[in-house]
Each structure stands twice: as C-alpha cells, then as structure tokens.
Amino acid sequence: MKAEIEIGKDAHGTPVPIGVEELLATRLLVQGNSGSGKSHLLRRLLEQSAGLVQQIVIDPEGDFVSLADHFDHVVIEGASYSPREIEALAGRIRQHRASVVLALEDLEVEQQIRCTAQFLTALFDAPREHWYPALVVVDEAQMFAPSAAGEMAEDTRRMTLSAMTNLMCRGRKRGLAGIVATQRLAKLAKNVAAEASNFLMGRTFLDIDMQRAADLLGMDRKQAERIRDLQRGHFLGLGPAISRRPVAVHIGSVKSGGKNGASALTPLPQADAAQMGALLHDQLAEEAAETVHRPPPPAPPPAPDADALAQSIAARAEAELSKPASAKAAPTGSVEDILREIAAEEGATFRPAATLFRDFATRCREQGVNSAHIDMPAFRRQFAFTSAGVDRLDEAPREAIERMAQGVADDVLAPYLAIVVAAAAGKRAPDEDHLARVYGTASPGRIRRLLEHLEKTGLISVHEDFGGERTITVPGIEDVMA
C-alpha cells in the first residue's frame, strides 16, 4: 500500500496526491509571496500526513501552534529553554518520535536563528539508533538560510547555514526530510534550495524570483508569466513525489487555523473626532513618563593626573610629619570604616586599584589609623569584600563566605562575592548593571564573559533561557545559609 496524501485538486477537479515515502527521500521547496497561501499549503500537508510520519515544525511566527489542538503535536516555546535544554529536547524528540512545533515568536530574530540552528544540529547529530523518518518543516526559510550576510553576526550566519545545509544535503540518510518555505527564492541560499527535488511555486511578482521558479519547474520565460497570475491558494507543482510534469494545484481545506490578522474589512468604531482624540490623549503624559529602559551604568570617572596626585600626597605627608606629637589627633576610625567610605563613593570601582590603594593609605594617615599590615594584594581583596557588601552580613555567614572565596582570583572576586551575598540573603541574582558596577566596567559583554568564566571554573552555575531569563546558583551556599 502506497502512503499518499491529497494536497488539493487540479484545474479539472482531479485530486493531486503527494507520495509521503517519495517526499521523505526527495525533499520539498515551497515559494510564494506573502498572501499567496504558502502557510495554508504547509498546514494542509502537515494535517494530511499527521498520522503517517513524525513531524517537526520550525515556526518563527507562531502560525502552527494550533496543530496541537487537533493532533498530537507538542508545542515547545523556544524562549523558555536554555541552549543546552533545546539540544537535549531535540535528542529526546528523535528518540521518542514526537511530533513537535518549535514556536519562536517570543524571541528576537537573531535569537530565533541561533535557537533553530542549535535545534537542527542536535536533530542531525542524534545517535544512529534514533534515525527514524521525520518531516522537518522550516517556515520563512530565508531567515535561516540567507543568500547574503545581512545584519546578523557572522558566527550566527555560519551556524545557521551549516545546520540548514546539513538538513537538506545530508539529512536524508538520517531520516530527516527537509520542507523549506520561503517568500523569495532570491533570498534563499542556493545550496539549500538546490537540494530539493519537489517544488510547489505560488504567486510571485519580481522577475528574478519568477525566473528562478520557472527554471526549477522547467518552464520557459513566456510560461513563467503564469506564476504572476496565480490566485491565492493555487500553486504549480513538480517533482517525483507530486508529478513528472508541472501541474496546477488548488490547495484543499484545513482544520487548524493560523493567527494571521484579519484580511477582511471590519466596521470602524462609532466615534467622532472629538471622542477619538480624547481617547488617544487620555493619560498620555502618565504613560510617557513611565520608565521604559533602565539608565546605563555611570561612565568611569576620569583618572586623576599622576603628578598632581603625587604632589598632593607628598604635601599631606609632610604636613602630617611636621605636626608635634601632642597635636596629632587620636584615631577617628578603622580600616573597615575607611574601606566602606571609599566603596560608597560614586564610581569607586571604576578607578584603578593602585589609585584606590594610594587614597586608602592617605586616609589612614589622616585619621591616624594603622594600615602598615595591609599591602596592595590584601587591600584589593578587602576592598572586594566591602564593595560586594560582605561586611553587612552577620559573623557566621561572613566567615563561611570568606572560606568559599579563598581560592577565587582577585580580578573576579568582587562580582563573585556580590552573587554569593545575594544568594545568602535569599535574593535574586544581581542583574548585569549591578555586576558591572561591582566589576568596574560599562561593557555588558565583559559581564557575560565573566559569568562564563565563573561557570567554567565551577564557582557558579548559570541557567539562561532564550528569552533572556537568567538563574544563577552557587555551589556550597547551603553551608552559608545553614
């Protein structure tokens, strides 16, 4: 028995079948401008073959999540998972032969691309014993296999092109049959489009897209004009799984529906200009006054002139030495008080360590505090503890944190302690702005690299989903909170 589905009917009302087994071996390319019925075609294909073969749908706009309402598809919200979880999910999908929809609409475009690339790569890298046949449908494929670099980062483009090329070129031996849909053939990488042997071409108007579609269908330039005149939901099909000659197909009906905006006219609201104006301006000032973006971290203060600072220090020291013993004031503070005073100043963490140490030594002399036992390395660590707020904790957790921090390098000690202090207090992990202030940087990239370094060295564990939500856990924090 041949496994066939009906995709629609031709001009004479005769059903047009698609052989599912042949489709698995030869792949499919769908093209059509926005509004041509491309997503409707994919939905018809998925619904008709749902009971025959495993289906994996990459859905950047959330158009196919309604399949779960009628079939046994599992919807995976890409924004809710970390990269490692997405890869693990892909492995389980192949192992258990689950039909899924990877919904990406809550992610930024570049995050959609990276999530899809990692997901497809994990599908491709599944163990041989899990190489079951599956249709992999990629809507808006020009995003994931662009013909030109565009505005995405070069490493992202290389990653996604590699994943899409593996799917279309080498996926067949692993049971993966790529079905890619695009609005414009000219924007789709040629090495991805060329691997498909079946084509369904919908309405398109640009000459370059019509010519490429006509070339794939084996039509001459005059016949290519037919592509411009196609109605919504009408496609020209060709390929071993469809027909050996180009055939016009009117795509059949579907059960599930997308969430596209309504294209039909709807009545306008019954309100005159005065009422509509009042509605538009109601509490506008209050809404505009809300804080939408957090202010950027303060810029580091300019470094003081070295010569002027040296002269100032020398003058203060000379004045201090010239005082008679009876005139010298008794100590007015302690090392801890001076450290807190310096750490509380705006932009203190952005100043060089050598400048901070000179300021510390000067203040100790001015206040008669003995600091001879504190050298530069000891000062750096004590200042890190103070700026992270360890001194505000009780004695028991403070001593436990000091033991945890014994092997931590000086240059990453302050942000590590800030994370530990927040965990000990039962609070959420500090955000990037707070860590940047403690670390003495205005670069978010440095903070991300810092967190990666701390995780690689085993000091923390970071869980971040594609939606940007980050959770940080600290090994050994239970001893501090006990």
Search tags:
Rossmann fold, 2 domains, eleven-stranded mixed beta sheet, 14% strand, nucleotide-binding, HerA_central, ATP-binding protein, ATP binding
Which fold name fills CATH's third level, the topology of the largest domain? Rossmann fold
What Rg, in angstroms, do the CA atoms define? 32 Å
Mean pLDDT reading: 82
Structural class: alpha/beta
Known CATH architecture of the largest domain? 3-Layer(aba) Sandwich
- Beta-strand fraction estimate: 5-15%
Largest sheet, spatial ordering of strands: 2-1-11-10-9-3-8-7-4-6-5
CATH superfamily of the largest domain: P-loop containing nucleotide triphosphate hydrolases
**Low-pLDDT runs:** none
Shape: elongated
User: What separation lies between the terminal Cα atoms?
Assistant: 67 Å
Total DSSP E strands:
13
Largest sheet: 11 strands, mixed
Query: In which range does the helix fraction lie?
Result: 40-55%
Number of helices: 20
> What is the CATH domain class of the largest domain?
Alpha Beta
Keywords: ATP-binding, Nucleotide-binding
Organism: Aurantiacibacter marinus
Pfam families: DUF87
GO molecular function: ATP binding
